[in-house]
Amino acid sequence: MARRFFEGRDHAAAYLKYRVAPREIVGKIMTFMEKMALKKFDLAVNVGCGSGQVTTLLGPHFSQVIGLDVSAAQLEMALTNNKPSNVTYRQCPAEELPFVSGEVDMVTATAAVHWFHHEKFLQEADRVLSPGGCLAVLSYDLDMLEYGDVSDKLNDICQEYHAALRSSSDLCNRNSFYQDMFNSWSYPDKEWLLSAMKASSPDPEVTMVVKYYYWLACKP
């Protein structure tokens, strides 16, 4: 079942201001595509794009990039983000991708698939991908916070929060959720990857150590 959260204007504005933009991870996705000797870089689709951080990062690598989200407020924020001229946005659910079969060269979703009806999304991703196209599914966990001499206290609070979340949510172990998805995916050319990166947020400037886990697969 798809779950609809984060659709309000205030939440969307916070996404635009604070959401981590995984520039290094996008570079690794492009390296994977080049390693697979993929030659088509016409259309990339970012599903559950939110306020467009990943969508804009894809702009330099493809002729056209389209960000999709079910939330009008998130897309409104995305349009205020600086974006290349080849990046556009559409409102639609992840389970009904508005493309003909075999039209898309890359489908990606970042920290979003666990909110989708993921079986329907993956069926749609397979349908719209061209032969040789890439599916890139990413998520992350906040591993550590750094802020002066209160870093330890902040991390204690985060650990307490995550412990409470684990006791009440069926999505508490997202790493396992994504790894199970990867293990069951049928494409023979696929990779499971882990990366750590640092990012800073403004007001106040807190450094976050973020652990990404993601899988990439090339359609036969």
Please specify the SSE layout and strand pairing.
Elements: H1 9-18, H2 23-35, E1 43-47, H3 53-58, E2 64-69, H4 72-80, E3 87-91, E4 104-110, H5 118-128, E5 129-146, H6 151-168, H7 174-184, E6 189-201, E7 206-218
Parallel strand pairs: 1-2, 1-4, 2-3, 4-5
Antiparallel strand pairs: 5-7, 6-7
Helix pairs in contact: 1-4
Silhouette: globular
Estimate what percentage of residues fall within beta strands: 25-35%
Oligomer: single chain
Number of helices: 7
Q: What is the overall pLDDT average?
A: 83
Rg from alpha-carbon coordinates: 17 Å
The main sheet orders its strands as 3-2-1-4-5-7-6
N-C termini distance: 28 Å
Number of strands: 7
The class by helix and strand makeup works out as alpha/beta
**Which consecutive residue ranges, at least 5 long each, have pLDDT under 50?**
none
**Helix share, percent:** 25-40%
Order of helices and strands: HHEHEHEEHEHHEE
User: Main sheet?
Assistant: 7 strands, mixed
What does this structure look like?
Helices cover 35% and strands 30% of the residues. With 220 residues, the chain is α/β, with parallel strands linked by helices. The chain has a 7-stranded mixed beta sheet with strand order 3-2-1-4-5-7-6, sandwiched between helices. Helix 1 crosses helix 4. The radius of gyration is 17 Å and the shape is globular. It starts with 8 loop residues before the first helix and ends with a strand.
